[in-house]
Design goal:
- With 191 residues, the protein is an alpha/beta fold.
- It has a single domain, classed as Rossmann fold (3-Layer(aba) Sandwich).
- 23% of the residues lie in helices and 27% in strands.
- The chain has three helices and ten strands.
- The strands form two sheets. Strands 2, 3, 4, 5, 6, 7 and 8 form a seven-stranded mixed beta sheet that branches. It has a three-stranded antiparallel beta sheet with strand order 1-10-9.
- Strand 6, helix 3 and strand 7 form a beta-alpha-beta unit.
- It starts with a strand and ends in a 7-residue tail after the last strand.
- The relative contact order is 0.21.
- The structure holds inosinic acid and magnesium ion.
- Magnesium ion binds next to loops.
- The site of inosinic acid (IMP) has 20 residues, from strand 6, helix 3 and strand 9.
Amino acid sequence: MFQEIQRTLFTREQIAERVKGMAADIARDIQADLEKDGHSVLDMDKVIIIPVMTGAMIFVADLIRELPLRLSLGLVAVSSYPGASVRSKGALLASEMPKDLAGKHIIVLDDILDSGQTLAMVRDLILKQNPATLRMGVMLDKQVKRVADISADYVGFEIPDEFVVGYGLDYDGYYRNHPEIGVLDTDSLPS
Ligand code: IMP
Ligand code: MG
């Protein structure tokens, strides 16, 4: 779709298959938690999915439609790459936190785990509210630059340390609508 995306890492089909697999894993784990508490997957007010905006929106839109659970959404917005940059400047909370998470089963979903600062910040804020369980899922895991002490419970794909875009991931706000995940050639960007 964009010629400056020089190499495709994952096609639409590969992504869709992996998202289904992750959804099955999440549904199985949440169902087990709920049954342990004497609840069912159709009980109300037990499961909250928290997408980290904006990068997670496409991943989450696809994933929740594969989850046969009664769930609600609570958004958080975090910014870490202000402007045209491929280097994280640390995580900044850019929204209020969802409330009333106490006793709930929470799943935080993000597009990518890189330094880990974003998910570590969100995790710490959620834990203050005493959820019943907290799990994290990411479409992509770049293990190389981890700064914060964090790992994801659900990972779509592990990738090398390259700047990727598409399927929700952006460079300076663009390319989120690219339907595949690919490596951006930052030298050939249109100005
Ligand atoms: P972390 O806080 O360093 O783990 O970075 C996580 C955030 O940085 C993600 O939510 C993404 O929005 C962004 N990010 C990290 N790596 C990439 C990338 O390769 N492409 C686009 N965004 C990225
Ligand atoms: Mg993000």
